[in-house]
Model the fold of this input.
Amino acid sequence: MSIYESVKHFLKKLTNESDQLIKTKPLKDQKDGQSLNTQHKISFSASEITNNQAVVDSIVEKVIRKDYSKRIYAGKRDEDIKACKERIYQYESFRTKKVKMVPRDTNELEVYIEDIYLGKLPESYTQEALFYLQSAVVMNFAYISGGPFKHFNADSNTMEKGSEHYDLTVYIQFS
Done:
C-alpha cells in the first residue's frame, strides 16, 4: 500500500469516527430533550454594592493579571477608534467567570469576584436569585468598566486620553 493510500485510508477512518462523535448530543441538549433556555438575568455594577474603591481596584487588578485575551482597547487601533462615537476603555474586553454568590442569612447573598468579597447582592435582586439558585444552572461574568480610555474628538481632530475610576459590570444568568 502506497503512502497516498495509507493517508487516504487513515483520513476516511478518522472521518467516520468524527461523524459518530458529532451524532451524540451535547449535555445542554440532553435535559428533557430540550436545550437550556435563559430563565432570568441580573445585571448590576459593583458600585451598586460597594463604595469601597480599593476593593474594586484590587478585583480589577486581579482580572487584568489573569485575563487570557489581553485585548486592550477592545482590540482597536487608533484608526479604528476614530470611527467610534463613544469612549473605548483600555480594559473593557477583560472579564472573569469567577463570580460567586454565597447565601448567608435567609434573605442575603454575598457576592465574591476572584475570591474577593465585593458586598451583598442588592435586595431588589436577592429574592429572585434565591428562587432560581434552587433549580437553575447559573452562569456568571464580570467585565471591567471605567479606567483609562481613548476618544476621538472630531472638533479638534485629535485622539484624547483620559481615565475614570474602575468599576465592574456583573452579569448573572439562570438557565
